[in-house]
Each structure stands twice: as structure tokens, then as C-alpha cells.
UniProtKB/TrEMBL annotation:
It is found in: Membrane. The lineage of its organism: Bacteria, Pseudomonadati, Pseudomonadota, Gammaproteobacteria, Vibrionales. GO terms for cellular component: membrane. It comes from the Bacteria. Belongs to the heme-copper respiratory oxidase family. The keyword Signal does not apply. This is Cytochrome c oxidase, cbb3-type subunit I. Keywords: Electron transport, Heme, Iron, Membrane, Metal-binding, Respiratory chain, Transmembrane, Transmembrane helix, Transport. It comes from Vibrio inusitatus NBRC 102082.
Length: 465
């Protein structure tokens, strides 16, 4: 298995690298919102050019790398088989990293499709689709060689991510190339908006959510030493996400030119999504808390417990946004950014951190992390960072929404746009501070993992701090 895990180690370290790079860019963006002069009047580092580096780095750098690395490890382990091809796995690894590097070069230069979470131009779209199909082949071909009778539940989630994202990515990125660096979508107007948010919501929701759920259903029982609390709830969680999530993106189209009946589908599906999401959250929560003694002593589980709380929170915020009266206040405000990051930093980020702490030592044959005390310190930095970030943006966002709609008796707006900017200014600083706390915790983790994989042996005394 040592030869098998080399490519998985590579994906895990790549995920860690791109995650920190993307988060560091996120801090730079947050700083620019409070100190606009930090763009130094350069077209290459202004907010609009840097933001796609942040979002693409998190989605395709951090999450996709950890998804591929963990899913290949899990499918081999739970199916009692080997990868169908080591060579193809390494081609996938290098191809995916080349894609990310090219994206980080072209986006600041202004080569962009302008589509949310799909900014890469058509040659890179083709490269991404090719690598994703290669990933699909490696995963499903390996699964087909399984020596077990059943398919472990995590592999159901991984497989669904591969299939659904393939379908939505291809449709949304269907374009007419004009030059090597410019193309135009085959869709237009309201149709383009619908297809974009069919992709956009599922890139954030389905790709990030189903991937992390699949990872959690494998890693958490390994850390706790307990089986998944309820197989039935995991099935409800799976089929509920498959049935409802892909329809929910149109709740971003409320009060738009999209037909009302399509808006209503998004509203209904978003509300229905509450049930399977919380079923999954409850299932994971009961698995984490099954052994109270281990929960008190193993701080990796604190990250998982925190992540599932943020999962429940963010999946409550989504249906809340789908309600028209709340959407009217919160949409297009900083509340949306807070909502996204309660999921991205709280749910996805905390889960990825816990997975790094469990799987990287495992891949290197280490029985324990070098310092569990540093894991605890990291947890406090991450938790403070998330809370500062999202609470500041919730307050700023609701304040924005209320101020934008306030009117005098004459019908004139009560507040100017500048008044709104002055109101949110202190919350932009708190947002920046929250990001600094979070990323500082990531560097603590890097040091801890470095010591873990480089020391010859890990003593219990050292681990316990």
C-alpha cells in the first residue's frame, strides 16, 4: 500500500498548499475592502482580478485536491483493492496542478469568461473536463474491481459528485470560441443566468457539500472508533441531496426576470433541502459524540463537531434566503458573503482541517499527530476567526438591506450609497481580522504536520502536549 499512497499524499499536500494560497488571497481581498488603496492602482491586483483566484483556489485547489486524494484512498481501502492505474493517477495529479497554475496566470491578466466559479476560458475548461473525466475513470474503474459485496456509503457520495458535476460543468461552460483567450456563452439573457446558477449554486453546494459529507462518513468513524450512527439517515442524506440540491440554485434568481414558476421551484426545493441536510448533520453529530471521553481528549473531533454545527447553520441559511421577504432584505448584501463563509470556513474548512490532521499522519505511517496541544490551539484560532468573520458580515448585510430600502415620506431614499459604506466599514475590518485568525491557525497546522511526518517516532507524551 506504500506505493499506492504516494499519489494520495501528493493530492493532500497540494490541497493544503492551494488552500493556504487561496485563503491568503482572501485576506488580501478583505484588506482591500477596508483599505482600498492596497490595490496600488494596479489592474492586476485589484479586487475584480484577485477574487476569482480566491474562489477558484478554494473550490478547485483545496476541495478538489482533497476530494480526489481522499476518495481514491477510501475507494481502495473500503473496496479492498488497488488503484486501477498508478500512472493515470499521477497524470491526473500533475494535470490538475498545471490547470490551477495556468488559471492563476491567466485570470489576473484579464482572460475570463466572467461566469461565477467558471471564470477559466475555454482551453482551460477543456483541460479541466479532461482531467475530471480521467478522475471519473480512475475512481469507477477502481470501484469496479472491489472485493467487497457492498459499496461503502462514502463512495456513493464521491460517485454522485463526479456524475453531477460533469453534467452541470459541461452545460454551463458550453461556449463559442472567438480567439484562444475569448469565448461567449451559447446561452443569453435569463437562460444564461439560469444555467449559471444551476452551476454556481451546485459548485458551492453540491461539489463542496457532497464531497465533504463523503469524506466525513469515512474519516469520523475512524477517528471516533465508532460506526456511523445510522445507515438509514446516510441514505436519506444522500438521496435528499441528489433530489433537491440541483434544483435549489434559482433561489438566487428571486425578484429577477426569470419566470415566477422557476423561482418557485427554487424556493420549494430549498425548503425541502432542509430535511436531508439536517438528517445528515444529525447523523454526523451522533457519530462524533458517541464516545464522550474520546471527544474530550481528541481535539481533531472538535474540528469535526464544529464543522457539523456550521453545516446545520449554513443549510438553514440557504432555505431562509429562499423565503421572499428575507431574500428582499439579504440578497446582494454582505449577508450572502457571511452565509457562504459559514459554509466555506465553518463547514468545509473545519472538515478539511480535521481530515488533514487524521489522514496525513496515516499516509506516512504515524500513529498520532505530533502535538495534540497545537491542534487545540489551532481550533481556538479557527473558531474565533470564523465567528468574527461571519457575525460581522451578518450584521453588515442586514444593515445594508434595511438602509437600501429605507424611504422618506416623499419616496426619496433615506440613506445614500456612501452612508451604507460608512456603516459597513468597521465590519469590514472585523472581517479582515477574522480571516487573519483563521489563516494563522492554518500555519500552526502546517508546522504540526511537518513535525509529525519528519520525526522518527511520536511519543504519547509529546502528542498529549
Amino acid at each position: 500500500m506504500m506505493q499506492e499512497t504516494r499519489v494520495m499524499k501528493a493530492f493532500m499536500f497540494a490541497a493544503l498548499f492551494w488552500g493556504i494560497v487561496a485563503m491568503f488571497i482572501g485576506i488580501a481581498l478583505a484588506a482591500q475592502l477596508y483599505w482600498p488603496q492596497l490595490n496600488f492602482s494596479s489592474e492586476f491586483i485589484q479586487f475584480g482580478r484577485l477574487r476569482p483566484l480566491h474562489t477558484n483556489g478554494v473550490i478547485f485547489g483545496l476541495v478538489c485536491n482533497i476530494l480526489i486524494g481522499v476518495s481514491l484512498y477510501v475507494v481502495c481501502t473500503t473496496s479492498e483493492t488497488k488503484l486501477v492505474s498508478q500512472k493515470l493517477a499521477w497524470i491526473l495529479f500533475y494535470g490538475w496542478q498545471i490547470l490551477l497554475i495556468l488559471g492563476y496566470i491567466t485570470l489576473p491578466l484579464g482572460f475570463t469568461s466572467t461566469k461565477e466559479y467558471a471564470e477559466l476560458e475555454w482551453p482551460l475548461d477543456i483541460l479541466m473536463a479532461s482531467m475530471w473525466l480521467l478522475y471519473a475513470y480512475i475512481f469507477f474503474a477502481t470501484l469496479a474491481m472491489k472485493k467487497t459485496k457492498h459499496i461503502f456509503v462514502s463512495n456513493w457520495f464521491f460517485g454522485s459528485v463526479i456524475i453531477v458535476i460533469t453534467m452541470i460543468f459541461v452545460v454551463n461552460n458550453a461556449v463559442l470560441p472567438v480567439t484562444l483567450t475569448k469565448s461567449y456563452s451559447i446561452f443569453s439573457g435569463a437562460s444564461d443566468a439560469l444555467v449559471q446558477w444551476w452551476w454556481g449554486h451546485n459548485a458551492v453546494g453540491f461539489l463542496l457539500t457532497a464531497s465533504i459529507i463523503g469524506i466525513n462518513y469515512y474519516v469520523i468513524p475512524k477517528v471516533t472508533g465508532q460506526p456511523i450512527y445510522s445507515y438509514r439517515l446516510s441514505i436519506i442524506n444522500f438521496w435528499g441531496i441528489i433530489g433537491f440540491y440541483t434544483w435549489a440554485g434559482t433561489h438566487h434568481m428571486i425578484y429577477s426576470s426569470v419566470p415566477d414558476w422557476i423561482q418557485n421551484i427554487g424556493i420549494v426545493m430549498s425548503l425541502l433541502l432542509w430535511l436531508p441536510s439536517w438528517a445528515g448533520a444529525y447523523n454526523i453529530y451522533r457519530t462524533i459524540t458517541a464516545d464522550k471521553m474520546r471527544l474530550r481528549e481528541n481535539y481533531i473531533l472538535w474540528f469535526f463537531l464544529s464543522s457539523v454545527i456550521y453545516y446545520a447553520l449554513s443549510t438553514a441559511e440557504g432555505p431562509l434566503l429562499a423565503i421572499r421577504w428575507f431574500n428582499m432584505i439579504a440578497h446582494n448584501t454582505n449577508w450572502i458573503i457571511g452565509h457562504v463563509h459559514s459554509g466555506a470556513l465553518g463547514w468545509v474548512g473545519m472538515s478539511c482541517i480535521a481530515t488533514f490532521y487524521y489522514l496525513i499522519p496515516k499516509l506516512f505511517g504515524k500513529s498520532q499527530i505530533w502535538s495534540m496541544k497545537l491542534v487545540k490551539v489551532h481550533f481556538y484560532f479557527a473558531s474565533i476567526g470564523v465567528l468574527l468573520y461571519i457575525v460581522a458580515l451578518w450584521i453588515a448585510g442586514i444593515g445594508q438591506g434595511v438602509m437600501w430600502q429605507a424611504q422618506e415620506d416623499t419616496g426619496a431614499l433615506t440613506y445614500s450609497f456612501i452612508d451604507t459604506l460608512k456603516f459597513i466599514s468597521p465590519y469590514m475590518f472585523i472581517r479582515f481580522l477574522g480571516g487573519v485568525f483563521y489563516v494563522f491557525g492554518m500555519f500552526i497546522m502546517v508546522y504540526n504536520l511537518y513535525r509529525t511526518v519528519t520525526v522518527h517516532s511520536v511519543s504519547v507524551k509529546t502528542v498529549e502536549g
